[in-house]
């Protein structure tokens, strides 16, 4: 699969520039802290144990350091992109591996070298590709729901899939907690739900898709992807923090699958003084790795993201970025049918409305889905 | 590979019992918070959307809830172990996937069902297996160092490997930041370093081993493991949070490799009011997944763990646990040669002393390694 780079104007930059906000404790030197990060995340040795040649090529370079407030600093460090060796697992390690074990280090922004963006490639389909496949024109939002709860049989899940598809939901995914439990193992569930969606599409004339949760141990990922592709699925759901962020790229490149990414296990990085900005993880990183859609917990639901955070994620997923396709923001986590139109008004139509519980709560999920679609002007 | 279960007396328990410390904000009900976790981590639906049969079998059961202090509670929730579907990725999801995105939830303890311990299997070699292979009798600590910095060529790294092995270091691993960078790609580095170790062993008559860093994207893990095994390596280094925790089990079962686990990217879970106890992640979880040794940042080094935290990790790695082999605590992260004997005095001999920088700082790493071994009574 090729990933054409557009002619969009992007300043060409050859280093990976990471911008940190540093919280120092009393007596801690911000410049020692910054230099410590530049060594820790590269050579893991004291500066005087490193040759000039290695330092020049591999140690991070502190570009700037400025005081924001008492004991609060901003610093920018430039890294050699070759540190990542074209592997997203090692990119994450370079960004936050060892320093996750320190404190007072928060990554606010990353300037990506264009060559790195090209190498990782971004979404294979993106918002436009999803629209084309689902036959939903620009200006209208896309919709998604989740099959649940865990414990249902493959036929029980398939029945729900059929009902949602008849109601007009575009993307019907497994709940991210449905993996390979006894009673509904992956392959049986996949076959039943995909068949149900196809049956519904024949009735409705629409093009709903089923995204099975393919998150799995590394040794099983390849066969899960192959099974999804062979069953005719357009895409899969993946939780990159459970199965490795590089698995998104694998699903894209070797299996041609679209990927919807789920934020499970990422929340601990989103502290105020330590971690990474959620928009970098759920926006930039997931998009760069190849996610066509990125689920995040919407403001006002069961989780604690602010509207500002959600809009920052939306921006990172859709902004011009080295020619990468735009990915679809997928707010969920307790959004209800009543409020969905207002959220789309706010976030824009290039958004996937992910609603589960609020449809289930209405009993007849086909009728509930139809009401959602109508409310969204679909 | 079989994992014989000893006759050790372990109370048989059929559910996965997770003990949380809950920090409530003003006006937040601890019981609502506890019930919310039990639903969120299982069915992801409101309780009234779930049938009695599903609730009975799959929803977590709040066993107890007690107040510790103002707005601070302890609660125990029992889960059906089948939620994990015998996959460690899904076990992590059940433990902390969605609730990582909430706040004020800290997992203090986990009571593991014996059947789950048997299924995941634990270390393939453990401390005793490492001792046997390395020919180091009980009562003496093991030693480990890291090849670095990134930027050295395979022959440069191999030269260091030879020098450390001649100095008597038992386990010579890649630095965890050395992945597949240009200039020292995995296969060339593996061949050069393994040959260097074997050459050194012929000279010294000792049994040093080289653990290459096999951490990689999921699609490449299998071939990295195979290459390590085929080169004659006894084990590999893995960062489970970068490549998926299940990859430890894969290295053990399909390739017979020993695994040393590295804590990269785990630090964000170790907050005081939200996350998991470090001893659960770097102790229980890594051991259960099959790590024979678990690296953690020792107290007094470049990172912030307390001695109590380190001792809790040691305990979790070595305590009786459903017949699983004991894994080797591997304190590192800035330990120096001078203090190593005192740490062993404190932690006990069933420990791997991991020292990098303090050996490099002495210039002649063979001589420095010999001094370390002598200091440790080896």
TrEMBL record, chains A, B:
Keywords: Lyase. It is an enzyme of class 4 (lyase). Residues 126-360 form the Ribulose bisphosphate carboxylase large subunit C-terminal domain. Its EC number is 4.1.1.39. GO terms for biological process: carbon fixation. GO terms for molecular function: magnesium ion binding; ribulose-bisphosphate carboxylase activity. SUPFAM superfamilies: RuBisCo, C-terminal domain, RuBisCO, large subunit, small (N-terminal) domain. This is Ribulose-bisphosphate carboxylase large chain. It comes from Natronocella acetinitrilica. The lineage of its organism: Bacteria, Pseudomonadati, Pseudomonadota, Gammaproteobacteria, Chromatiales.
């Amino acid at each position: 699969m090729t990933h054409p780079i557009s002619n969009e104007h992007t300043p060409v930059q050859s280093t990976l520039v990471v911008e940190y906000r540093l919280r120092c404790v009393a007596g801690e030197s911000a410049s020692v802290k910054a230099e410590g990060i530049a060594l820790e995340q590269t050579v893991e040795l004291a500066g005087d144990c490193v040759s000039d040649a290695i330092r020049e090529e591999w140690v991070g370079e502190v570009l700037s350091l400025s005081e924001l407030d008492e004991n609060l600093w901003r610093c920018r460090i430039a890294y050699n992109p070759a540190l990542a060796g074209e592997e997203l697992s090692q990119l994450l390690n370079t960004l936050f591996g060892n320093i996750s074990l320190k404190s007072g280090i928060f990554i606010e922004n990353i300037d990506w070298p264009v060559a790195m963006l090209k190498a990782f490639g971004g979404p294979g389909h993106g918002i436009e590709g999803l629209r084309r496949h689902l036959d939903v024109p620009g200006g209208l939002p896309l919709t998604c729901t989740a099959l649940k709860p865990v414990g249902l049989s493959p036929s029980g899940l398939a029945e729900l899939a059929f009902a949602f598809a008849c109601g007009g939901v575009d993307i019907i995914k497994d709940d991210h907690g449905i993996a390979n439990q006894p009673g509904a193992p992956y392959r049986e569930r996949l076959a039943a739900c995909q068949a149900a969606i196809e049956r519904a599409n024949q009735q409705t004339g629409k093009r709903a898709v089923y995204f099975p949760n393919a998150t799995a141990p590394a040794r099983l990922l390849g066969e899960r992807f192959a099974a999804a592709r062979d069953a005719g699925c357009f895409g899969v759901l993946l939780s990159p923090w459970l199965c490795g962020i590089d698995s998104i790229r694998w699903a894209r490149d070797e299996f041609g699958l679209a990927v919807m990414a789920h934020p499970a296990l990422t929340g601990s990085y989103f502290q105020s003084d330590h971690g990474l900005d959620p928009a970098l993880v759920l926006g930039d990183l997931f998009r760069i790795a190849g996610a066509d859609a990125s689920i995040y917990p919407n403001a006002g639901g069961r989780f604690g993201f602010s509207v500002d955070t959600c809009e920052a994620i939306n921006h990172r997923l859709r902004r011009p970025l080295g020619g990468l396709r735009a990915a679809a923001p997928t707010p969920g986590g307790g959004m209800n049918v009543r409020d969905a139109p207002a959220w789309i008004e706010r976030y824009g139509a290039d958004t996937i409305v992910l609603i589960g519980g609020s449809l289930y709560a209405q009993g007849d999920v086909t009728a509930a889905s139809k009401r959602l679609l109508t409310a969204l002007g679909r």
